[in-house]
Amino acid sequence: MEFNPVQELLQQVQHGDLALANRRLLDLCFDTNNSELIKKAIDISKVLRQHLIDGNKEAAAHLLDNEIKRLGDQILDAEHVPLNFELLLEAKAIEKHYAKGNFRLQSISLSVHRGEIIGIVGENGNGKTTMLRCLAGQLELSGGALNYTQLPEADLYAIRNYVAFIPQRIPRWYGILKDNLHFSASLAGLNGPENELAVAFMLERLGLGEYADKTWEQISSGYRTRFELARVLLAKPGLLILDEPLANLDINAQQTILNDLRMMARSRRRPMGIVLSSQQLHEVEHVADRMVLIRNGSGSISDAKQQEETENLCVAEIETSASREMLIAAMQGAEVQLHFNGGFYTLETKEMDAQELVKRLVGGNIPISYYRDISHSTKRFFTQK
Amino acid sequence: MKRIFFPAFLQRYDRKLLLNNPIGWSSRLHRVAWIICIATLILTGYFLVQPNDPRTNSTVYMPTILLSVIAIVGFVFWMIYLLRFNVFKRFGPTGPWSFTTSFLQIFASIGLLVVLVFIPSGIESYRADRAFESDEIVQDVNRMNFLICGLMYDSLRVEWSKDTVIVNEELVLRAREDSSTHELVIENTRYATSKGIAERMQFADSSLKANDTMYIFSEAPDYRFIQPSGAEEHSVVRPYTTREIYFNVHNAHLKRNSAAWEKEYAGLKSKYADPDYDARYGVYKGIDSPITFLDLLDVSAVSSGLDNITSRKYGWYGDNVWIFFRIWYYLSLGLALLVFVFRHTTPRTFFIGILAAFILNVLTFAFLNFGIFNGDGGLSVFITYILVFAGISCMIFKDQNRNLVRGIALNLFFVCVYFLPLLIAFNYFQSREMYLEYEDTALAAARLAFQKMVYLACEIGGFVLLMTLLPTYFYRAYRRWYALPEA
Predict the structure, then answer these.
(1) Nearest Cβ partner of A187 from B1, B22, B400?
(2) Lower CB density within 10 Å: C or N end of chain B?
(3) A161: nearest CB among B18, B21, B92
(4) Ramachandran region of residue A55, left (φ > 0), alpha (ψ -120 to 50) or beta?
(5) Which among A143, A146, A106 is positioned nearest to A127, based on CA atoms?
(6) Is A70 left (phi over 0), alpha (psi -120 to 50) or beta?
(7) How far from the centroid of its chain's Cα atoms is residue A1's Cα?
């Protein structure tokens, strides 16, 4: 059964997902491009935040429910705007090697469209940051070409303005955080009331309202990432590149920011292409349209759907106190490859599916404290030798 | 955030700038202007009311040093704030004129900070100017010289010196070494041309034509015990000549009233005498050095006081204003150029550029001392450097990655381009000097005036050149260089 966005919001409120519903409401109002509606959504968000701070969840839910019903069809206006999936960046066989050192990023081709998230995964030192910096135009390519398709005549400065890059180590901000946001918005050409509105929206949207008047030293590294994200988003980039954005976040914050990125990429008013690198494979896989695995400088692109069609390998990782012999016995003679990385066992087989694998493990009385089917996950590549 | 030093209107203006004009807001010019206004008011008030006797030696150097330190601290603080919000490095959609605006705002901010240093001397000069009029000084000096001569009439040397000059045109013209000589002494006899005689008659205290070719010139002893110390240049009152003093005193001598004169002199002395003079120098007289009437009348203290008054009063007159202006201008301009470069380049490129410029200068001056570059005035080598920097910086437009050498060349070209017209003019005049060394004085003075005018034109031209290149060349070059990918 498909819901329209208003019904979806009401469902979320009904199930107590107030923060999610609030963010979604802000996004929907933003997509309408109606400044009055956006102001209204910001005001609702502020009151809601106060209710939640006061621990009055019931009042918060009531408020949200009422306001969503009241706004009703107005927030559906943006739904008529078609989703934009135009090509933003085409990287053709890009290569990079440094004058000093042996590292080489080998030929990788990639395209990024609006509304799309590309996750780049790989172990440390394999070239994720190098690749991202190449895509952002920060590093000169040793081979191949980059084509920013929406900027046919642009100079390098315009490209650097168009492609926002958030490094893993975010440079320190000085002064009041909110001033920095106003400054960035002003630089992006948002003046006067428009500037005020854009910053207020971004603060509420990313849950930064409480911290707006603080300084860099007064916020955690997770919030620093969020503020940096707010800053670059105010500059209205076409392509957003993030290097390890989840590195400093707890698991809840990771989920929130990934969901936010997902929603922002698919914004009807200002859709973006997003490329992000991370070690948090499972989390990224949930939101990414495509994954690029980089190993020793060479990349392979996985499209989850394509792989589902072409591969019938069952891969699972388990955590157990059972010995290797017990596991082999539980498999009842089936051809299963077993890898142990010190914490988890990875089981690979073509002779059974995931359900059968679980059945045999349970039948063999294997005590399991953790199980995950990674048959369609990029993570399986990490286990292969 | 509450900023207690900034009033509500300034905070409103600050917010308006933040929301509408990021370049203006980040330059912090409005805050610097406010702080300098307040500081100027406080300092002006303080220096206007603080006890400060214009007759004493100037003590302005102490507050000037203190304010220089404060200005440097202020500059550092401003720099810290300035570099927090760097418009350029945020890749915002800025236009060509943003460079001009940004530079002028940096220049104005630094200029305002530098102005602080000049407040003490400016106020000191103002106070001396208000306390003593130029006409008043010259009149009082004339009167004091008269009174000194009158009071000490009996002790004065009254014999006039005499000089006999014989007109002998042919002898002088034949024997003289250059065209400006109109007199010669041969075996204790003085000969002169008719032009020399005319000049003497113009300035002599007394002259007598003994016969057709012999003149006797007399000169009164010097009775100008106190000099107006330059006040005469700014006054319509003419200081007395020694001859005028002599005749005035001589005529008044018979009906003198010593008591009244003494009282009047005491009044003028207390008006002008440096009160610290004795404490500073004392009047030590040994056995062989008797105390003179000048000592008794404290003439040295009065002269010292007058020197102090006039040096304060005319400290900000005429050419001195230009000197102060140039100190302010070049200090502000130099710092503004460096700050601007620092904001538009990477720290590494900036500091290596400074080092490169230092080494280049040391080597060039070393070679200049050996005469290696001593062609047309020697400075042509610096002009060549600037042109080479310009040439190298042009290559940025062809580069595929951000090149350190090109960045340094661009920075050096930016810093030096203002000085290009001045260097060309200076080099030209320097090379011409060797041929014009023996010109006569009138021509030399005219040439000096012409040089001054040309230098002023070059200073203005240099600024215009910089302002022209900022939006047209430097904007494009810096923009491209900074956006180029790293190798």
Answers:
(1) B22
(2) N
(3) B92
(4) left
(5) A106
(6) alpha
(7) 26
Report pLDDT digits (tens) over B350-373: 999 999 999 999 988 888 777 665
- Distance between CA B266 and CA B272 in Å, rounded? 10
Residue of A nearest to B88 (CA): A187
Q: Does domain A87-302 sit in CATH 3.40.50.300? A: yes
Predicted pLDDT at A385: 45
Mean pLDDT calculated for residue range B270-299: 69
**All structural domains of chain A with their residue ranges:** 5-78, 87-302, 314-383
For B401, phi then psi, to 5°, come to -140, 165
CB of B21 less than 8 A from some CB of A: yes
Inter-chain residue contact A174 with B485, CB threshold 8 Å: no
- Is B90 within 8 Å of chain A by CB? yes
Angle at A289 between CA A87 and CA B91, to 5 degrees: 50
User: A161–B480: do the CB atoms touch at under 8 Å?
Assistant: no
Indicate yes or no: CB of A187 within 8 angstroms of CB of B94.
yes
Q: How many CA atoms lie within 13 A of B371 on its CB side?
A: 0
Beta strand A298-302 with A163-166 is: unpaired
Give the length of chain A: 385
Burial (0-12, 13-18, 19+ Cβ within 10 Å), A117: buried
Q: Is the CB of residue B192 less than 8 Å from the CB of residue B166?
A: yes
The residues of chain A scoring below 50 in pLDDT are 310, 385
Structure tokens at B1: 């955030």
Contacts with B485 from chain A: Cβ below 8 Å: 137-141, 156
Instruction: Please judge whether A196 and B483 are an interchain contact, meaning their C-beta atoms are less than 8 angstroms apart.
Output: no
Beta strands A87-97 and A143-148 are antiparallel
DSSP for A79-139 reads GGSPP---EEEEEEEEEEE-SSSS-EEEEEEEEEETT-EEEEEE-TTSSHHHHHHHHTT-B
Are the CB atoms for B457 and B429 separated by under 8 Å? Answer: no
Predicted complex ipTM: 0.80
Residue predicted with more confidence, B86 or B31: B31
pLDDT score of A311: 63
> How many of the other CB atoms lie within 10 Å of CB of A194?
14
Confidence of residue B293 (pLDDT cuts 50, 70, 90): low
From A17-31, B273-287, B289-303, the region with the lowest mean pLDDT: B273-287
3-class secondary-structure state, position B183? strand
Indicate the burial class of A261 (C-beta count within 10 angstroms; 0-12, 13-18, 19 or more): buried
Q: From CA B456, how far away is CA B460, in angstroms rounded?
A: 6
Average pLDDT over residues B103-126: 94
| More confident of the two residues B191 and B153 | B191
List the structure tokens of A261. Answer: 């990125």
Angle between helices B380-394 and B420-433 (to 10 degrees): 150
Render pLDDT for B436-484 as a digit per residue (tens, 0 to 9): 555 567 777 888 889 899 999 999 999 999 999 999 999 999 999 999 9
8 A C-beta contact, residue A346 and residue A383: yes
Structure confidence at residue A310 (pLDDT): 47
Residue with tokens 């440096």, as numbered in its chain: B274
Cα(A72)–Cα(A66) distance, integer angstroms: 10
Interchain CB contact of B465 with A (< 8 Å): no
Q: Both tokens of residue B44?
A: 């002006």
Candidate from B1, B94, B480 with C-beta closest to A156:
B480
* Tokens coding B120: 């003490």
For chain B, give the percent of residues with pLDDT over 90: 51
Q: Which pLDDT tens digit goes with each residue over A97-133?
A: 888 877 888 888 889 999 899 999 887 888 889 999 9
For residues B206 and B163, is the Cβ–Cβ distance under 8 A?
A: no
Q: Which residue in A has a C-alpha nearest to residue B486's C-alpha?
A: A139
